[in-house]
Amino acid sequence: MTESNSCLPRGAVVPPSPITADDFDRAHGQAAKSDLLWRVSNGAYGADCPTELQAWGMTTWWTLGRFVSGLRLSPGELLLDQACGRGGVGLWLARALNVRLIGVDWSGAGVRGAADRSTGFVAPGRARFHVGELTATGLDAESVDGAICADAVFFASNRIAVFAEMARVLKPGGRFLFTADESDDPYRPAAVPDWAPIIERGGLSVVTRDETPNWAAQLKEMYDAWMENIEALRAELGDEAADDLVDEAHTVGPTLSRRTGVMYTTERPGRASRS
Predict the structure, then answer these.
(1) Chain-centre distance of CA 26, in angstroms?
(2) Confidence check: pLDDT of 252 > 60
(3) pLDDT at residue 4, as a whole number
(4) pLDDT tens-digit map of 169-180
(5) Residue 239: which domain range?
């Protein structure tokens, strides 16, 4: 019997996002070529920004440190970077942890960019990338030792299915770490006040929940920096990509006071956890 939405945790199943793979193709294609955009975005985060990643904000040295310690991977094991984009976060971790990497993203431009960048981080053959979905990675069951997702789980309309897919592809005892935000804003139906019930419905166990330091303040600084430089960015990126930046800043920016950035460490139950 199909479970009614009224029985599900808030934010578990929401209308499809208006954001499409084409939007991310623009972001990972034309926008990725903009040195100005990276300078503006990274500058807003200052010393907290690992500039080598060329990630879209929010991924800081604190984030990377928590990924390293929480994954508990051994050299040679396989890491999945879900919604990998142009691959910076996963590639950095693959190099730092001496593990193999598989990256999955729904943007063909992102996947191509990640593949092009891979040899700048790891030896040939250590990383591969393909197009897939948050809820359908195309990977075999119990095929990965650990997984991450930086700021993307909320794009899925069925959030429970994201964690069910992670429970399927992770080996028993494997961990999935992700960053997102939580909000009790009643005017945002897609807002998630607590990810834990959604995670558990998907078949994973919550190990830890941490609040991301300075999350809202730094994101606001990045949006403000975009707007201060929007005409120069428009001249470099074109109207469509610049309008995407304006739309995100104007849509997300005003809601930041009711959002809390979080990182969850989750685990697939099974054999005893590794020490």
Answers:
(1) 17
(2) yes
(3) 54
(4) 999 999 999 999
(5) 17-267
Could you give the CA distance from residue 138 to residue 84 in angstroms, rounded to a whole number?
A: 14
Question: What region, left, alpha or beta, does residue 262 occupy, with left being phi > 0 and alpha being psi -120 to 50 degrees?
Answer: beta
Does the pLDDT of residue 69 top 50, yes or no? yes
Is position 274 within any domain? no
Residue 99: φ, ψ to 5°: -120, 170
Residue 2 lies in a domain: no
- pTM of the prediction? 0.93
Give mean pLDDT, residues 95-114: 95
Q: Which two tokens stand for residue 65?
A: 């440190």
Cα angle 8-190-151, degrees, rounded to a multiple of 5: 105
Q: Is residue 166 part of a domain?
A: yes
Taking residues 93-122, report their average pLDDT: 95
Query: What is the Cα 47 distance to its own chain's centre?
Result: 21
Closest residue by Cα to residue 201 from 16, 11, 12: 12
Identify the CATH number of the domain in which residue 140 sits: 3.40.50.150
pLDDT at 74: 98
Domain membership of residue 27 (yes or no) is yes
Domains in the chain: how many in total?
A: 1
Residue 170, phi-psi category: left (phi > 0), alpha (psi -120 to 50), beta (remainder): beta
